[in-house]
Amino acid sequence: METDRALFTRVFLPHLQQAYRLARWMTGSAVDAEDVVQEASLRAFRSIRDCSGTNPRAWALAIVRNTANTWLTRNRRERAPGERSHADDSANHLDEDADHETPEIVLLRKATVEEVRRAVDALPLPFREVIVLREIEELDYRQIAEMAGIPLGTVMSRLSRARSMLFKSLGETP
Amino acid sequence: MTNPEHIYAIDAYADGELDPIRAMEVEKLMTQRPELRQRYESVLNLRAALRGAAAQDRASDLLQPRIERAVQRTAPTVRRWAALAASFVLGLVLAGGLAWTLLVPREPALAEAIVSAHMRSLLAEQPIDVASSDRHTVKPWLARKVPQSPDVVDLAQQGFPLLGGRVDVIDGNPIATIVYGRAKHLVSLMTFAKPIKLPVESTVAGFHIRSWSQGDLTYVAVSDIPASELATFEDDMRRSGT
User: Fold this and answer.
1) With B47 labelled, which of A93, B126, B201, B237 sits at a CA distance of 20 to 30 A?
2) C-alpha closest to that of A64 among A40, A39, A95, A92
3) pLDDT higher than threshold 50 for residue B238
4) How far apart are the first and last CA of chain A?
5) Does the structure show a pLDDT above 70 at B67?
């Protein structure tokens, strides 16, 4: 029988760098990211027995994602995705805006790392998290839908909308 | 004006989310609609920019040790013993068809630790460190091992013969445990010098626990004998005047 510590070491710790990266992009801060990862680690440890039968990396990232959301909502009064009320209405409203997008005749100019970070950080949380989960953590739509607790269609619309917003802030229209 | 469905299709294509048939349709669509081709390339450019920026990210080398320390602080040894003991019990259930209920609600860690110590003794080659029905052997042995040395009484007349003693470690403290027999079962009687928080009667993983105080000591009896017999055990102990 594996101890909780051994299980934690085997299941959670190998994904620490990815966990950090997710927290880093969700919080937009290297210092905050480490705090979020530490908090997420303790949560993961407390529920380490729940990890069986799941993909360990997705399980670890889901905990980091949830911790980052709680952390951001607590520390920045940022709206949490999936939170009912004003926050979700606002997200839906933005989702609908995508319908009126003009086609992106956009070329990304060479953006610096700092510009990319700032552009992502400026996205509202519901959009920021889907683009980070997809492009940086390379999760598929189904995994993102499960993690964020939203339907596949919402994953698609938020992702498209997030991209359109990033094209605007990082791109040049020729 | 681009149909948003087309944009989603392009994005899904770029994300590798389309089945081959649908992917072919999207590829065909892109040859007819340059703005869709443009969107596709922009998505790939953005991806490269994001991954390029993220490639630099690295947690400090101090993060992992910091987390391991934090985890260690929250990990009482009790949890590990409880998990270990639970797995042994599961093994016994599978092997011997013993009807122990594992799905009991979680009890406080202390009760778990007490039951774990008892279960561990059942599983050990030798459930008692000092095997003796002579209380004058058991008491001095315990007195050498633990700070507080309880009186040891024999309850053979009452049907609980003294079998010996052992030392358990509960919550980091060595605890004197006196072991009694009851038919083919064992009763572990632990003695705590400090008051502890336990209900008078509780059940963990099918084991009954009774707790009472007498004099300066708190006694905890744990066994798989019926709760009513364990209550009798307590009465006999109290009457024996320890």
Assistant:
1) A93
2) A40
3) yes
4) 62
5) yes
Domain that includes residue A154, residue range: 86-172
Mean pLDDT of B118-147: 77
Could you give the number of structural domains in chain A?
2
Rounded-to-integer distance, Cα B213 and Cα A140, Å: 60
Instruction: Judge whether residue A85 has pLDDT over 70.
Output: no
Interface membership of A128 toward B (CB under 8 Å):
no
User: Are the CB atoms for B190 and B160 separated by under 8 Å?
Assistant: no
CA distance B35 to chain A (A): 6
pLDDT of res. A103: 47
CB atoms within 10 A of CB B37: 15
Domain that holds residue B46: 4-54
Mutate: best of B32, B38, B46, partner A, most A CBs <10 A: B46
Within 8 A of A134 by CB-CB distance, chain B residues are: 15
Instruction: Show the DSSP H helices in B33-134 as ranges.
Output: 34-54, 63-74, 77-96, 109-123
